[in-house]
Design goal:
With 408 residues, the protein is an alpha/beta fold. The chain has one domain: Alpha-Beta Barrel (TIM Barrel), CATH 3.20.20. The protein is built from 15 helices and 13 strands. The strands form three sheets. An eight-stranded parallel beta barrel has the order 3-4-6-9-10-11-12-13, surrounded by seven helices. Helix 8 links the parallel strand 10 and strand 11. The protein is globular and about 55 Å long. The two termini are 21 Å apart. The relative contact order is 0.12. The C terminus is likely disordered. Bound molecules: flavin mononucleotide and iron/sulfur cluster (SF4).
Amino acid sequence: MEAILFSPLTIKNKTVPNRFTAQAMEGNDGGGGRPSERTLDRYRNLARGGWGLVISEALSVSETSLARVNGLILNRKNLDGFKRLVEIFKRENPQGLLLFQLTHSGERSGAFSERVSLGGGEGRILSNGEIEGIKDSFITTALLAEEAGADGIDFKMCHGYLGAEMLRPANIRGDKWGGSFENRSRLLREGLGAIKQGRRSENFILGSRLSMYEGIRGGCGTGGPDELIEDLGEMLDVVRLMDDLGMDYVNVSAGIPALTGAITRPTEPSKYLAYHHLRYTKTVKNLITRENRGLKVIGSAYSSYKAEAPAMMGEMLGKGYTDLCGFGRQIFADPLTPKKYRNGEAVNWCVLCSGCSRLMAAQLNDGCVVYNDYYKRVMKNSRTTPSAPPSLESLAPSAPLPPSAALP
Ligand SMILES: Cc1cc2nc3c(=O)[nH]c(=O)nc-3n(C[C@H](O)[C@H](O)[C@H](O)COP(=O)(O)O)c2cc1C
Ligand code: SF4
């Protein structure tokens, strides 16, 4: 099993040295949208941890619609900070790949920010021209990501942010951004087309993260504006479109953290929801194989398996159901996971307590409140969560999940 976990994967002419993927995890610790020393430390640690692929936390393409008060904004003003982040990462781990995730928070923008929507959600309704401007910001920001030295971008179309709101059947705008599938996928199609034209190197990696099923009426992964039950047909068309556009990978996720968070990041009582992520990933990978397409596939929610995560990775990779395995909370619980696992050292496995999510929701610096003393203090001092941070004893992981029981 070790062999497959630590086997390389080629994307374009770049090599991901192993299959451990650090998924995007917002730390809400920037300053004026720039990476702070704390931000840089987080990426230094991930580089030291030997993750094959690291996807940065969501970097905003907008200065006005932000989800986190200390969220990062990638623009020319802040470019030096991001160049420094890449330099630090590459110095520590020259083999690892680093992608920048780009987002517009849309209706999921924080109360301190401007909340905007396409029409179906909360917030001021964006005009046709404003959406055109947002598309241009995605293009400009992607090219800045390349200038900063990132290996590629993850175009965020998941988790209820503007990209996902755009794709979902409930987007029934009457202009060129809503209604038909062609209109709802325009941001991706035109945005990516322009990024492809504008990038300096053909090897600059292009991918996107999707919520295969959002769990809301008319959401991504349903068959129409009034449908609630899962129907993956159209999301699989998005995957086909991505491949047709010449993109390199699809990052498979699900849910909307603010509304259907248990789907995105299962917690201890709902950890079995992570099996849906396995099914989505397998379905996407099967489609790509069957239709002889080139997209690589990244799965999500591997933290849910705790110490059994490597076994689950081995099973999914071994059966050809995914190419890369993505961890979210585990990168907070132990940024050194791949290195420690390889060396046979004890790993601090995430216990799915949601402490980091609670800090993020409270707009505080967020990280692991179980294993990291700084975040334990943030949690303790927080008025929103007056109780003491959960102790390791109270959160003892339940019996490990047998890998054989993992696929329904
Ligand atoms: C505190 C926190 C911050 C997150 N930030 C992002 C983000 O910036 N972009 C994103 O696509 N997903 C984000 N996620 C979702 C994770 O990338 C991941 O999909 C989710 O935690 C499930 O994976 P896991 O079970 O391995 O944690 C975040 C999740 C948490 C808990
Ligand atoms: S705070 Fe809890 S959920 Fe978050 S990384 Fe730590 S153990 Fe995992």
